[in-house]
Structure formats: C-alpha cells, structure tokens
Amino acid sequence: MMSTERLAHLLLALIWIWFCSAVGYADGLENGLARTPPMGWMPFERFQCTVDCVHYPRDCISESLFKRTADLLVSEGYAAMGFQYLIIDDCWMESFRDTITQKLLPDRERFPSGMAALSHYIHGRGLKFGIYHDVGRKTCMFGGPGALGHFQLDAQTFADWGADYVKLDGCYATGYERDTGYPAFGKAMNRTGRQMVYSCSWPFYKEKPDYRLIAKHCNLWRFATDIKDSYTSVFEIMELYRRNQQQLLAHAGPGRWNDPDMLVLGNFHLSYDASRLQLAIWSVIAAPLIMTNDLETVRPEIKQLLQNREIIAINQDLLGIPGRCVRTSKHFQVWLRPVTPVNDLGRHSFAVAFVNRGNFSHCPLCPRQFQVVLEHLGLDSPTGYYVVDLFKSSRHLGMFKPNDAFSTRINPEGVTFYKFTVAPLL
Fold first, then answer.
1. 226 annotated active-site
2. pLDDT of 21 higher than 80
3. What would the pLDDT profile of 180-230 be if each residue is shown by its tens digit?
4. 27 carries an active-site annotation
5. pLDDT confidence of 121, banded at 50, 70, 90?
6. For residue 46, is pLDDT > 60?
7. pTM above 0.90, yes or no
8. Which of 52, 98, 226, 344 is catalytic?
9. Which listed residue (134, 154, 164, 169) is catalytic?
10. Could you write out the three-class secondary structure of the chain?
C-alpha cells in the first residue's frame, strides 16, 4: 500500500505536470521530481578525489565505497528518514571514452562490475542512484571527459544505467557553452524518457545568474562555493544566501531548489553546535539535505541530529516555501520559514532559527540570551502559536500570542530552533 504522504506527493507532481503543460512550459525541464528538497549522500567533501585504492582502500572512490554506504543508509536508519539518493561525485570515470561507441566508461579497476550493476545494487536496497558529470570539456577534479559535444549520448548512457539523479558541473566551458549547455543537457535527459533529478552548478559560474531561466531548466542549482568542514564555511554560505535571498527566493519552490552544498555533519572539524546550526538553516531555506560523511564513523549525537524527524519535516514541508533571514545584527540573526499547518484565517505556522554569531566584546564565545516580540517577526495570528523546541521534541513551551516576548538562550556560533504551530480558529 502507498503511504498517504507519498500519495500526496504523487498527486502534487501529476497536477503540476498537467499545469505546466497547459501553460506552455513543456520546453523546460519540468519532470515532476524533487517536489521536496532531495535528501541523500555524496562523497566529495569527505572523500574528495581519492583514487588510490591500494593505500586507501576504505576511502577511495570505488564501487566498494558506494555499496558499503548503500548498506549503511539502510541498516543505520537513514533511508527510512528520507535519505534516498546515493550520488557518485567526480573521479568515477576513465580518462577516455570508448573508442568505438564514444560512451563514457567507469574506471575498470575501481568499478569492475560497471555502473549498471552498481545502480542495480543501489536500487536493490530501495535507494536511488545518482551520478556526476560536467557540461564542459573535462570534469573539474579528475579531468575525465566532459559532456560537451555528447549531450544526448551521455544522457542516454545515464538513463541506460538506471540513473535517478544527475549532477552537472560547469568546469572547462565558456560562459556561452554553459548558458546553452545546461538547458540542452536537461532537454537531452527529457528525451531519454527516464525521470532523472537535474542538479546544476550553473549559477556558481555566473557573476549575475538569471534564476528565472535556471529554474526553468534545473531541479536544483548550486549557488555557493564548495563547502568545507568548518563553522566559517557554513556561515559564509549562510551570508551569501542572506545577501542574495531576494533573487534566490523568487524562483525556488517545489521542483526547483537553491542548493548551498552538502551537509558536513559527522566529519572531523565541525562542532556539535555548528552541526546544529547547519542542519537548522539548511532546513529553513529548504535546501537539499545531502550528507557527505563516513556513515560508519558518525558519532551518536550527530546521527541523532541527522535523523531528527521534526527537523526533517521542516525541510520537507509540503508548502515548499523557502525561508529567509528576517533580522540580522553584529551578534544575532533570526531565520524564519512559513510551514504547515495553516489555520482558517490563512495564517501560517513557522519554523524559526535564532543564531548567536558571537562577536561580543566581553566573553565573545559565551551563551547569550535573545528576546523578541513575536509580531515583530511577522507572527501575528490572533489565535496564537504553540511552541516546540525542535531539538528537544518533547519540550513544549506553551502558547504564545503575537504581543508576547519570546526569549531563548543560544550557545556561541550556535542556534536554537523552534516550530511555532499556529492555533486554529475556535
């Protein structure tokens, strides 16, 4: 039996496809996919382009790594929480195409069974298979053959392998080649007849991206530089989003998402508080939740964060309205996202993240209290809001009205995160 939630997603997708066809969007990407931000796993930030399987057998980019991760996504409960896309990043291919067919070739030593077999293994675990490519002449890190001049052949190759998701990078291409190549590759994917989520790095390579055009052709788009395993990197991406949020928000929604890059929780450097921060903000802005870590070594407290049902529900909220930073200062930020339920007055519930940036002259890295009147954040429903701490789902804080002051104590370079559920009209 299909679950109620999955049935709702399917119906929304079918309605949207019909609508887009009716109003003439058929020449764009619209494929009915990614109605909520994709969730999954990619190797790049954690495993980089490690290809020496002799000296680094556990870390090298190989079918062994992806089979192990597929098993762990299922056995450790991540798949059940929605992390379904297992995506191969760069460094999977040979440095040359097949001399007869011109098809891409997986590295024969590191992927001896071939990509179709690996895809079958991943699908057999109930997961979805994703793969990396580049719109230009060569891939970014490994320098393998790019898609330029082979768009339809490569799209069909991925479809034949059973790909469910394609990430297309933008190295070794001119601006014109990217501007024509990204739409062309998306159309080539459509012509295969196989539904594949289309992840574009297009805006990252443009000084002034046209998000209206990008949203027409891509399911998600990277707008920031590659993330690093640090608070500084996470906050720099937050700031990039905040400074450009008007443009980024204008065209994002179901089937079209802003991608600030992967979740770096569970690696070597990011603190527990910074891990909470990244997860909260990525959920507020409706970002894809794509992990990059070694699932065998993720610490229990980080695993608990990654599998927080309430926060995942915020990220996957079916309204599909990305959030924004609504207040910023030297010391604090407030990020807010409209979510379900909506009451009979048409007032939304909200997910609200309060960020302590530090920077205080006295004890710059101390916990700090922050207080705000709710109506000053736009929480103005006269019925009020029931408040729950999303990091402590059993912690119900009671009812708050718009003119009430809400107070929270925030760790340095950390976050507190709450859901304000709008009360119904009695």
1. yes
2. no
3. 999 999 999 999 999 999 999 999 999 999 999 999 999 999 999 999 999
4. no
5. very high
6. yes
7. yes
8. 226
9. 169
10. CCCHHHHHHHHHHHHHHHHHHHCCCCCCCCCCCCCCCCEEECCHHHHCCCCCCCCCCCCCCCHHHHHHHHHHHHHCCCHHHCCCEEECCCCCECCCCCCCCCCCCECCCCCCCCHHHHHHHHHHCCCEEEEEEECCCECCCCCCECCCCCHHHHHHHHHHHCCCEEEEECCCCCHHHHHHHHHHHHHHHHHCCCCCEEEECHHHHCCCCCHHHHHHHCCEEECCCCCCCCHHHHHHHHHHHHHCHHHHHHCCECCEEEECCCECCCCCCCCHHHHHHHHHHHHHCCCCEEECCCCCCCCHHHHHHHCCHHHHHHHCCCCCCCCEEEEECCCEEEEEEEEEEECCCCCEEEEEEEEECCCCCCCCCCCEEEEEEHHHHCCCCCCCEEEEECCCCCCEEEEECCCCEEEEEECCCEEEEEEEEECCCC
pLDDT score, position 88: 98
